[in-house]
């Protein structure tokens, strides 16, 4: 795979040789070579299973006569007679009132066993699972440009996703258990889509099986990424053979939502000065525009094909125009402050992200510089991005002070990564329905490295993961600037209306957290909709911008709507209290771990607990908790032989206040 040769997050560890199981199969008469059971759903709720069975015969055609194929699903069965001249047999089964398959957050993930049996000319069988559903990807022109919208069973699905890279640089170490753990990281953060990125590999059946079971839609790239590819032989035949095998193998899966021709290659040809070195040579366009869509159209016609990502779905358009189709946003990480996300209005953001280091225990398990420092020799081996550490420092900008110790560097850059991506997603979600989804770069890591991942290679969820869990919640409240002034935007991505009384407060940051202004706001947002409410002037006009902030919270805790916070200045100017006085903590042993309860006596921002600094195997259930004076939160830490007192120490229990206070 392309990333075997190194990427800006990946180690150069190119391998060659046999890495999957090999066997010799003997058979006589006829056998099943492949099965493509394409399950769809009619508007009246009838499931339709169109099964294509490719057959191979042993050559004794005169004596064989006919064989019989039996195809069954959900109590329905069809029989098809086939002869030795038949290479492919097709059956169509209709299943009335079948239980449909839905992505997470929209319904159940009903899966049905399909049994295919061949008899009379030798015996062979296959068993697969399908989910009855229809998945459309709508790219329609409108007044704002060109949409990019997933529609499942007739219902629009707002995408909360992430890009997926191979789960281990040493691919033979990947197991079903490790795959499932990583996909559960996605599901438990609120994601409903994973994009299998084109610089990696077609994943094992385990990956797609788990996505089927958990309701995670799969955007599947063909394996072309950030490079020019010759369209002549011998590569052309290899591309065709590999693509046909991949589409045949994966087409059965309920979770498969999109085939994508390439990652950034069309963008690259347009904007990355490829034309001069190519000097008229082929670069892959024939694959993306002709060969791959023909293969998908033949073998998996139920699934939408896209030529690339980013892509604008129209002639004479720049492929990375945010007004049209899919957009990759990389100027923020490479060049600009993360506040620049607010200048974008993407119809669908399919790649964007910000770097941060892995967990402390993960980092120090492989980096042993003395003293440990961002620019240590071994540290830089685990920072693959061009000028990565400089971009981390620049990215702190006015948001957080420049750290003076390695411990503060680690915490500040992890926190800034989380804030940067959350800032972008909250802005994009506030644009709904103009924006129909985000796919962050990236969910997982393949080795211990400073990267864009939300979960590091040791399976530890970084602060970014916890930030994603907040901004990917089905119901989100966010404070955003609008033409009339600061407003609260609510996105209700559930099937139930959101009717609530919101408490609007302007509070003091200091000890006691005095209430400076307060109002109630009644809101009602229909299912799968959003609404914007202008905040009153007494809430948005501070007496002292450096010592005040806004909190918006639902009075009914059962609404599952987390508070929204707004600040008038960055943390470097904000009067945040010393955490030694503003935050108290206590811990007690519980079954399987320790409960750590923190109480705030002033505003304390982004409280995080890092139990891996005590035990690399320990895990915490929550992070980046902001508390106002008088409130508390309990962290559940799971692990063996944990010292409760150590979990309350300054090295383990961090917050934004301690960075500002130094």
Strand content range:
25-35%
Largest pleated sheet: 6 strands, parallel
| Overall body shape | globular
N-to-C terminal Cα separation, in Å?
45 Å
Estimated radius of gyration: 27 Å
Main sheet: strand order: 17-16-15-14-13-20
Average pLDDT, all residues: 96
Put simply, the count of helices is 17
Structural class: alpha+beta
What is the helix content? Answer: 10-25%
Could you give the count of β-strands? 34
Low-confidence region ranges: none
Overall description:
- The protein is α+β, with helices and mostly antiparallel strands and 662 residues long.
- Helices cover 22% and strands 31% of the residues.
- The longest helix has 25 residues, at 406-430.
- The two termini are 45 Å apart.
- The relative contact order is 0.09.
In short:
The chain is of the alpha+beta class. It contains 17 helices and 34 strands.
Describe the secondary structure blueprint for this structure.
Blueprint: E1 30-41, E2 47-57, H1 61-64, E3 66-73, E4 76-83, E5 88-95, E6 112-119, E7 124-130, E8 135-138, E9 141-142, E10 145-146, E11 149-152, E12 155-157, E13 159-164, H2 176-188, E14 193-196, H3 205-214, E15 217-221, H4 235-250, E16 256-260, H5 265-271, H6 275-278, H7 285-299, E17 304-306, E18 327-329, H8 331-334, E19 349-352, H9 360-364, H10 377-381, H11 388-396, H12 406-430, E20 437-440, H13 463-471, E21 475-482, E22 485-492, E23 498-508, E24 515-525, E25 529-534, H14 537-540, E26 548-554, E27 564-567, H15 579-582, E28 583-590, E29 593-600, E30 604-609, E31 619-620, E32 625-627, E33 632-638, H16 644-647, E34 653-654, H17 656-661
Helix pairs in contact: 2-3, 4-7, 12-13
